[in-house]
Amino acid sequence: MTRAETALQANNDILFQQLQAAHHLSGAQLDRIKQIFAQSARIGQGNPAVTQHPMTPAQCAAHVPGGPASYSNPTFERICGGKYLAPLYDPATQRPEDAKVCIDQFEYPNIPCTYPVVWVKADEAAQICAAMGERICDAHEWEGACAGQLLPPDYRFDLARGVSEDAAVQRMRAAHNAKYAPTQSWSYGPTYKTGVCAADSSKSPGCPGGSFTQCGSNTYPSGSFPDCKSSLGVYDINGNAAEHMNLPLAPDEMSSGNGRELGVTEMKGSWFIFDKYRAHPDWCRWRAPFWHGTDVMSPNSHSNYHLGFRCCKTLN
After folding, report:
1. With contact defined as beta carbons under 8 Å apart, do 47 and 4 qualify?
2. Residues near 258 by Cβ (< 8 Å), separated by ≥ 6?
3. Rounded CA gap, 189 and 231, in Å?
4. Which 3 state secondary structure label does DSSP give 244?
5. How far apart are CA 103 and CA 110, in angstroms?
């Protein structure tokens, strides 16, 4: 192993211990997650040789009022059956107890004051979620978690019939964005604000766009900014790491519907430099172009230094 590979493996070994302690995984679950990581030379919390985090986990713990323990929520744990999960529902007509799905409150590994996992492909994210006893989220679920209101799915599957995946995504995206643009919002409120989320870090000098050896994953620990949360209690949706989600192009591709297969990749949110450079819109219900688009389960799905994920859990 190179020095960088050895350092990445050492960091991942610590991460596995944290996962076991926080989420009480079975031996089989942890072994499966380790296997997925081992199949990649990049999955982790960033290339240690070039990453420069703007805040340490210890600084996060000191910065958060009450420390990481303050993020424990017994009501959510009772509803969702696990730690650091938030129920998704429509507050206009439902109670938290009515939720049929929960979402990770933090980017994976879903542990406060821990750096998010990046350099993960969409298919690897889906596999890790499954190993956790969860699943990759559908786009509308992430959007509802951000906007503070889970709405019924309204994918325009009619626009996807008989055309290529790229054309289907662009048609569906245009209709969706036009519908929600008049009511755009961010997880923390109706207007974009700087200093609220983990979005004031910097790119590595000379980072060309997506190089593992030149681009540091200069993220903050998850939950470093307690005010960067939605009204449903979901953190870091804006800033820190962008996130893989599933965009179904047909009804049987919905992760939330236990479909036979998944749809195509959808990048959600924004990342750690957005207070300095807003590279694209990042309001809650905005859907991106088909950037680096593939089927979610394609072995060639995209990964990079600022792209992570979070999982959803269907409730029985």
Report:
1. yes
2. 314
3. 9
4. strand
5. 10
Give the C-alpha separation, 284 to 237, whole Å. Answer: 8
What count of other Cβ atoms lies within 10 Å of the Cβ of residue 257?
13
Structural domains in the chain plus CATH codes: 3-314 (3.90.1580)
Give the integer Cα–Cα distance in Å for 161 and 147. Answer: 29
Residue with the two structure tokens 């199949």: 39
Q: What is the pLDDT of residue 259?
A: 65
Number of other residues whose CB lies within 10 A of the CB of residue 79: 20
Strands 135-136 and 101-104: unpaired
Q: What is the spatial distance between Cα 102 and Cα 129, in angstroms, rounded to a whole number?
A: 13
Euclidean distance between CA atoms 18 and 15, whole angstroms? 5
Q: Which residues of the chain have pLDDT under 50?
A: none
- Specify the length of the chain in residues: 316
Q: What's the pTM value of the predicted model, to 2 decimals?
A: 0.97
CB-CB neighbours of 176 under 10 Å: 21
Q: Quick one: tokens of 263?
A: 């749809």
pLDDT at 2: 81
Residue with tokens 């939330």: 256
